Amino acid sequence: MKTLNLFFVVCSSFILISCASSSISLNVLVPADINVPQDIKRLAAVNRSLPAKGEGFNNVLEGVVTGEGLFVDKDASRRTIDGIANGLASSPRFTIAIPNLELKGTGTAQWPLPLDWPQVEKICKDNQTDALLVLETFDSNNSHNTTTVNKKRTENGKEIPYVEFVAHLGIAINAGWRIYDPKNKKIIDQNVYVDRMDWEKNGPTEKDAIKLLPSQRNATMDAGYFAGQQYARRISPTWVWTSRSYYVKGIDSFKTAKRKVQSQQWNEAAEIWQAALKDPKQKVAGRAAFNLALAAEVDGKLDVAVEWAKKAYSDYGCKAARSYTNVLYQRLNDQERLKQQMEGK
Predict the structure, then answer these.
(1) Which residue, 132, 167, 168, 142, is CA-closest to 76?
(2) What pLDDT sits at residue 115?
């Protein structure tokens, strides 16, 4: 949620200055939701969500009754493992191994008993990992319906009413995870990820609209993959792209600074904005200070960025700088958490 809140504040700031601004994308490392012990650097990820012997028939029956299709959850759970492998592949915190191993569990959203520690130790030893990450449960549910919308189009100067069909497909995912620490014989995280993905397509007939939707199997596979990626964000710092805005209007030199930014010449752009601080117009000076805050953030100097953003608001009345200051403070807080997660105290 903190990432979403940061995104909201950035968007609000962008709206405030959009008429006079341009934007850039910034790759930011955001902390994980939880702190995994520092001595755990390599994980083995295993799927245990498949039904144990004797439970398979019940899952097949459920798939037939609900219309979810045969073995969809089985295949989607494997895609969930692919999702977390992909999510951690670029992680600066972990490396991950995917053993050619599938353990048996409940095959539903119901949790199985934890694994025995000798089994956990063997899997970790065989794969030279510090901990075992297990997809313990996986379950999906689908919903689909079709609605109609009354619309009008103009032909030969006349409004012609017509009906458009809207087909909807929703996939709800329930994925339960545990992380086993064999060294300390401790489960360091147990978490259920619950979410849904939705698709909507329009067409002139109900059949045409439904035809444009992804197949239920493919949609469930995509939702499972996304669930794996989201759990990776829970346990590992993650690089995310975020938008930043800066002023390009005010005085002519701001146009030159914009070209400098576009060619990644931030020092040259900063020199232009430094000179603009002397402009007699308070608005111009405030925009220059705001832009200098962004230049400092891009350079990784968050403390300096905060000071420039505060100055832009308090000294020059640049309203967008207030929201940007909050964003920068959030980044400073995140830096402290990242130090704990990446280096330890």
Answers:
(1) 142
(2) 97
Contacts 24+ apart (CB under 8 A), 144-147: 144/168, 144/169, 144/170, 144/213, 144/216, 146/206, 146/209, 146/210
Provide the 10 A C-beta neighbour count for residue 134.
Answer: 26
DSSP state letter for 183? T
Sign of the alpha-carbon dihedral angle for 55, 56, 60, 63: positive
pTM attached to this predicted model: 0.80
Whether the Cβ atoms of residue 187 and residue 114 lie closer than 8 Å to each other = yes
pLDDT in tens, 24-67: 999 999 999 999 999 999 999 999 999 876 555 454 444 444 44
Residue 131: both structure tokens together:
């901990």
Place of tokens 């014989």: 185
Pick from 298, 299, 274, 301: which is nearest to 288 by CA?
274
CB atoms within 10 A of CB 327: 22
* CA 181 to each of CA 3, 88, 178: distance values in angstroms, whole numbers, following the listed order: 28, 18, 10
Closest CA to 226 of 188, 201, 198: 198
In sequence order, the β-bridge partners of residue 217 are none
